[in-house]
Amino acid sequence: MPPLEEGPLAVIVDDDEVFRQRLCRALAQRGWEAIPAGYAEEALATVRERAPDLVLVDLRMPGTNGLDLLPELRAIDSSMTIMVLTGYGSIPTAIAAMKRGADHYLSKPADADQILSAYENVRHTPEGAEEPPTSVPTLARVEWEHMQRVIADCAGNISQAARLLGIHRRSLQRKLSKYPPPR
Fold first, then answer.
1. Which CATH architecture has domain 9-134?
2. Is the pTM of this model over 0.90?
3. CATH topology for 139-177?
4. Which residue of 20, 60, 102, 113 has the fewest C-beta atoms within 10 A of its own C-beta?
């Protein structure tokens, strides 16, 4: 009987255990082996031991954050694909992540299909070529996602979120009433 062929390997580095486990299950259903890591040191040990094809790194984590982890991961293996996956996306952090070694940057919520599609785009983009323009979110989309995160952090309190965002409550409600801008 021939040995079973192993699927590609992903390491999920995120301090949110529920999200980490859910994403591992979703990738496993798509033929991937997925290993969860709750913090940077665990991720580094796993990457040294297993040489993954893909590493998904959360930007904000206690201890060593995702941006600081990127160069360390890249130093271990320059051939693996590293993606930053964050709920606090912005253009400056996307640029910083790319400069520190990320191959791609996705805003949460991103599902397994979006992640694997981005992975395929990265793997099939020739070295030095620009990524397809659809991979970069529009400024309107980034603003809309930021407003959603602030509202979630305020437990749905629109008035408090508007104060934190520095805009009038009615302006925030008007912006929220529109459909989310395209990615």
1. 3-Layer(aba) Sandwich (3.40)
2. no
3. Arc Repressor Mutant, subunit A (1.10.10)
4. 113
